[in-house]
């Protein structure tokens, strides 16, 4: 049975971009200390996209243990569902090195995360959004969303992100390889690209994230633009790739070129890692809101 949404009145707005995925409570341990803040791939992407573009839709599930005030001040609540008897997903990330952001251990207490499903998407968001983005989630769960959306025969671009650091089962890797051809644009980091190159090179478009070195854009396997990142002091790298994706998509939907969109995404991702969470991005970019 579908969970109740936060409001029952009819939909009043259609989002420019619909983000689908997890909202977490992030517990991060870094060499500088331990922090707790809101997180999740879809949360990061949707909330930062709202800096540049309104309205933004978020299809996610949270528990009643989650303080949703800031989240719901930025995104449309019609797609945000609250589950009464389960906790919000909690992601615990332990970073061992400031210089190597891949040197980390990740564990996830799933909470309500497995329960998010295609039926949570308001129908108008499928037909009338300008873009749909599916953030990191288990490969089979992603596939259900991709298959559901493609069965609607929509002409809206669909982008996809993944995180192979969660995946060790060969069947999961194979499912990821089946998922990307169903999307129009794929986001991967350099390690994922090494494992998925054959699939990614056949996609219409792809963004390869290079961590502290920036990112580049590809069309059908050919690099057509690259953006370097400015050096920064890293405090918390959690969600940087999702932030890049959110800003990239918001800039692109506003009419930005691939290079302009990538530059905006890389710049915001670089700024995001200098402090914990993402609320500092709003203080520094109030003129954009």
Return Rg in Å: 17 Å
- Main sheet characteristics: 9 strands, mixed
- Number of helical stretches of at least 4 residues: 9
Structural shape: globular
Name the poorly predicted regions: 1-11
Ends: how far apart? 37 Å
Instruction: Enumerate the strands of the largest sheet in spatial order, edge to edge or round the barrel.
Output: 5-4-1-8-9-10-11-12-13
The count of DSSP E runs of length 2 or more, i.e. the number of strands, is: 13
Overall pLDDT = 89
Percent strand equals 15-25%
Structural commentary:
- The chain is an alpha/beta fold.
- Helix content is 31%, strand content 25%.
- The protein contains 9 helices and 13 strands.
- It has helices at 41-49, 69-74, 123-128, 139-151, 170-179, 190-200, 240-253, 258-272, 279-284; strands at residues 17-20, 24-30, 33-39, 56-63, 80-83, 89-95, 104-109, 131-134, 158-161, 185-189, 205-209, 215-219, 222-227.
- The protein has a 9-stranded mixed sheet, sandwiched between helices. Strands 3-2-6-7 form a 4-stranded mixed sheet.
- Helix 1 runs parallel beside helix 7, helix 4 (139-151) runs parallel beside helix 5 (170-179) and helix 7 (240-253) runs antiparallel to helix 8.
């Amino acid at each position: 049975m579908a969970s109740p949404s936060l409001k029952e009145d009819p939909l009043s707005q259609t989002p420019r971009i619909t983000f689908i995925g997890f909202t977490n409570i992030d517990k991060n341990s870094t060499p500088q200390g331990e922090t707790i803040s809101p997180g999740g791939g879809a949360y990061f992407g949707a909330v930062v996209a709202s800096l540049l573009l309104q309205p933004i839709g978020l299809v996610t599930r949270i528990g009643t243990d989650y303080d949703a005030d800031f989240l719901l001040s930025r995104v449309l609540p019609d797609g945000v569902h609250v589950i009464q008897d389960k906790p919000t997903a909690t992601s615990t990330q332990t970073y061992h090195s400031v210089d190597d952001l891949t040197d980390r251990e990740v564990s996830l207490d799933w909470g309500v995360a497995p329960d998010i499903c295609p039926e949570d998407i308001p129908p108008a968001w499928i037909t009338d959004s300008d873009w749909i983005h599916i953030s990191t989630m288990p490969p089979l769960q992603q596939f259900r969303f991709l298959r559901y959306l493609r069965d609607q025969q929509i002409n809206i671009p669909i982008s996809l992100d993944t995180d192979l650091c969660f995946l060790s089962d060969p069947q999961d890797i194979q499912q990821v390889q089946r998922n990307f051809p169903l999307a129009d644009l794929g986001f991967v980091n350099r390690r994922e690209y090494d494992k998925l190159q054959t699939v990614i090179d056949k996609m219409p478009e792809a963004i390869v994230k290079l961590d502290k070195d920036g990112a580049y854009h590809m069309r059908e396997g050919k690099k057509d633009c690259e953006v370097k990142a400015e050096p920064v002091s890293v405090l918390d790298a959690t969600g940087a790739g999702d932030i890049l994706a959110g800003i990239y998509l918001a800039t692109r939907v506003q009419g930005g070129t691939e290079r302009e969109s990538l530059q905006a995404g890389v710049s915001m991702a670089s700024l995001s890692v200098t402090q914990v969470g993402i609320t500092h991005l709003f203080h520094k970019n109030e003129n954009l809101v």
